[in-house]
Amino acid sequence: MTQTTDDILERLFPTAESGLEPLRQGVEKVCLPARQVVFRRGDPCRNYLLVVQGSVRVQVLAANGREITLYRVRDGQSCVITTSCLISVESYPAEGVIEEETTALVVPKAVFDQALGSSAEFRRFVFANQGQRLGDLIQRVEDVVFGRIDVRLARLLMALSGQGAQSIAITHQQLASELGSAREVISRQLKQFAGRGWVGIGRGAIDVKEPVALDELARQSD
Amino acid sequence: MTQTTDDILERLFPTAESGLEPLRQGVEKVCLPARQVVFRRGDPCRNYLLVVQGSVRVQVLAANGREITLYRVRDGQSCVITTSCLISVESYPAEGVIEEETTALVVPKAVFDQALGSSAEFRRFVFANQGQRLGDLIQRVEDVVFGRIDVRLARLLMALSGQGAQSIAITHQQLASELGSAREVISRQLKQFAGRGWVGIGRGAIDVKEPVALDELARQSD
DNA sequence: AAAGTGCAGTGACAATGTCACATAACCGAT
DNA sequence: ATCGGTTATGTGACATTGTCACTGCACTTT
């Protein structure tokens, strides 16, 4: 299931096609440790980042400490913001943080431009990523503007538990950051869920006990 | 300042470059009346839409009637959603409505694909648009999640009045839809502004009287 | 003039976010 | 095991924003 660096290189910069070999020259492989900040708001974009294996969280921070996760870039995906900024020469509007140790390919702008022109596969890849992120973002706007916090929290818990009755290792603060809410609000909602026997609460962990009930709530207004 | 259809065609599908002439064949010019719905949520994308002159509002609607404007596509811009969906073959996550009579070019998927491969200028154009929209969207998320409604309203009024002391023809409901808020909330805020002498309120119109004061509020937490 | 339609005003209440704390659990060093 | 520091959570009071159910007003049509 896991793709190797070579798989990705071969797919996006195939050596079979003429004139593409030199492209691989400029591509560098890096390994980034958890919690490292890949880019900050306002940074200029210099390289195209391609995640081979790992996870990058893209988030926006507020002045008062609140934050919201916009989306994640995972195995075999690329960071759209980077893509767009590279080409429109704008700076990053958000922040990217490594969530778990991540292996990535750093593609210099020149190589990126070249590949875009010469590889239809590469174009498809880049745009497919764009489309997904754009969809994610619109969904996020919708959730945040119209969605109830209990429904959104239930949805998040279901996503984190993989629909099953499991224990999730996460703090209330992290859940709040994910949803762009405040810790107190999440704590109260969890207490409500716990009161109904849907979850158990431990320090830094949530026990999903009644996935069916949570899922029913999560499905409201679909 | 206004670009003609030919200007745009020439820039994005230049006849000078070899083999591009046939591309123009499939491109069709259409004129769309105000309030027409260009695409709905869930529609599949078939064509690439390029606005020559006019304005398309892209919005999300909630079940209970609330709505929020995500961004607008204006003169010489293209609709990103369409771009991404075309390539990733997803369906529209939002709705597009013509705001004022709009002239647009309809580019079939095949022509779009072709042009993307053969014209660096076209690629730049497409990605530049993507980048802008992505930035707009992220900004929207930030505003909605962290921003105070009075600040956001002041900002909107300043944008609509062009920073000057002018009368704006708009209803409270329209302002609310723009910000993803509720009419009552906007009405109250406007009353507050009116109480301070910053604006005058008429039926379907707002008189901006103290742009400086509004602007100062609008600049909070930048 | 009467009726219809869309726009705006209002009070009561619900949901969510903010603030200022109090507790409690964990961790490492003694 | 105990102490002290750090991080996570609990809680009440309050502010802001959204919801609901109305009312009244202005303009248009008949």
Word description of this protein:
The structure is a homodimer of 222-residue chains. With 222 residues, chain A is of the alpha+beta class. Chain A folds into two domains: 5-145, Jelly Rolls; 148-218, Arc Repressor Mutant, subunit A. Chain A contains nine helices and eight strands. Chain A has helices at residues 5-12, 21-25, 80-88, 109-118, 120-146, 149-161, 172-179, 183-195, 211-218, and strands at 28-32, 37-39, 47-61, 67-74, 95-108, 167-168, 199-202, 205-208. In chain A, strands 1, 2, 3, 4 and 5 form a five-stranded antiparallel beta sheet that branches. In chain A, strand 3 (47-61) and strand 4 (67-74) form a beta hairpin. In chain A, helix 6 (149-161) crosses helix 9 and helix 7 crosses helix 8 (183-195). The mean pLDDT of chain A is 89. Chains A and B meet through helix 3, helix 4 and helix 5 of A and helix 3, helix 4 and helix 5 of B. The structure holds a DNA duplex (30 and 30 nucleotides).
